[in-house]
Amino acid sequence: MGKKGGKVDDEYVVKEKKGGKENRGKKGRNREIECSDYEDDVSSFISNISYQNNLERESLGEGSLTGESGIEDSDHTVEMQLEIALEAAALKNSVVRTKNLAILTDLFRSKILGECLQKRTAEITEVILKSLKNGKGSEKLKTAQLAVLFTLQAGEELDLEEFYQEVKPHLINSSGSERAGILQQLAALCFICTDSLDDRKEMLLLLRNLTGSEDKDLSVSAMGATSLILTVCSPTERRNTIEMILNSVIAQLKHSSVDVRIQAGETLAHLFEMGRDYNPDFDDSVDELQSVFDDLETLSRDSAKFRAKRDRKQQRASFREILGCVMDSEDVKETVKISAQETLPITSWSEKVQYSALKESLGVSTSLHLQQNVFVREILGLGPPPLRADPISKGDKIEMKKLNAACNKARQKNMLKQRDKRMVL
User: How far is it, in rounded angstroms, from Cα 268 to Cα 300?
Assistant: First the structure.
């Protein structure tokens, strides 16, 4: 492995296995070659850093942390992880790049990078653009996921509009098995980065043609992405889009896949909510409205034995809520617990769609970002992060443990004395 900070090209050096005459004397047998596993070295190094940090935490009885409380990873350690992964993600080998893009994605999810990110904004942008240009399939999907997380971390420190215009050409014409996932990430970037009417119109037209696709994953992504972009559209944009896609979405309620049916139902509930906002008589403009209500009611009570039990249960639970919103105009009432002192109320389908999209990108670290990521909080209308009490220092924790141990010891001695007295009597 090359030295850190310089160019690393010697990982591709092909070494002939030692064997001397024994190997050279056998005709017709290919020489065995081996390539140095640079990606394994990088992954091992980063894993070793995380392992050492976990050991330190476990020694204090804290378990695994993600930077939310307790002893946090030092800025130096996080910066080292970021530097090594970025260096490896810029190499020529696609396998190496994909593996380290995954490492970067996990790092962007699990940490609030702050100043560490600001120093390397240009370098991260260059790595993302290079991987989108040269990558295919899973590498391009990983890069698209990283791009979304990068914008959520960088926020307004990055020129979001310019970044979107740079990555869009590499994602909008994607193809292959990863196309559904890539389009979903592109829609998230459109939602986060741009306020341009032309950009939204371009995406909505593309997604309209994919709604009802034979590829069920593509159809699910197209409906979900359309719903997300509509949350930031003007009433005129919403009206035009609803008129174009409403019948296609209704048709998907009879699809054979439970995922497509549920996504169609959720998209339909969102369309009805937005339609009633700009037109109180929206229901009268829907063709065969009673038939739509009947389909939703049937799905909310579906007990067909040819469907899997799990699918039936999931479908009934989803469509009971959807039916109430579409047929009875019921409001969404959900509450997301952010911390002991703060919650996020969700009162509309637009808010629910936005939260679900952010949760899909942030994964298990959603709570961390809701508490500390200023840009994510701004998107959801939470305002600046609340002031938090200073965390207990390492020395204070040790003193508390010593005090508790002394109290337990004294309590046990007293209990033994009392037990001895009872035995004597």
Answer: 14
Determine the Cα angle at 105 with ends 42 and 198, to 5°. Answer: 140
Answer whether residue 25 shows pLDDT above 60.
no
DSSP 178-230: THHHHHHHHHHHHHHH---HHHHHHHHHHHHHHTT-SSHHHHHHHHHHHHHHH
Average pLDDT over residues 179-194: 95
- Rounded alpha-carbon distances, angstroms, from residue 350 to 211, 260, 272, 355, 380: 19, 19, 11, 9, 11
- Name residue 295's beta-bridge partners: none
Query: Taking the model in full, what pTM does it have?
Result: 0.75
Q: Is 15 helix (H, G, I), strand (E, B) or coil?
A: strand
Question: Are 144 and 181 in contact, with CB atoms under 8 Å apart?
Answer: yes
CB atoms under 10 Å from CB of 63, counted, come to: 9
* Segment (H or E) for 50: helix 38-59
**What span, in angstroms and rounded, lies between the C-alpha atoms of 160 and 154?**
9
Lowest-confidence range among 65-74, 302-311, 387-396, 405-414?
65-74
What residues contact residue 173 under an 8 Å CB cut-off, 6+ apart? none
The whole-angstrom separation of Cα 25 and Cα 12 is: 26
Neighbours of 282 (CB within 10 A): 18
Q: Name residue, tokens 């800025």.
A: 75
Q: By the 8 A CB rule, do 85 and 123 touch?
A: no
85 Cβ contact partners less than 8 Å away, ≥ 6 residues apart: 42, 46, 100, 103, 104, 107
**Vertex 261: Cα angle to 259 and 264 (nearest 5):** 105
Distance CA 292, CA 269 (A): 11
| Mean pLDDT within 233-249 | 94
- Indicate the angle between helix axes 258-278 and 309-328, nearest 10 degrees: 10
Gyration radius of the chain over CA positions: 28
Give CA separation, 410 vs 106, 178, 396, 405, 416, in Å: 47, 64, 21, 9, 10
Q: Give the span between the Cα atoms of 315 and 255, in whole angstroms.
A: 13
Task: Name the residue with tokens 């056998």.
Answer: 26
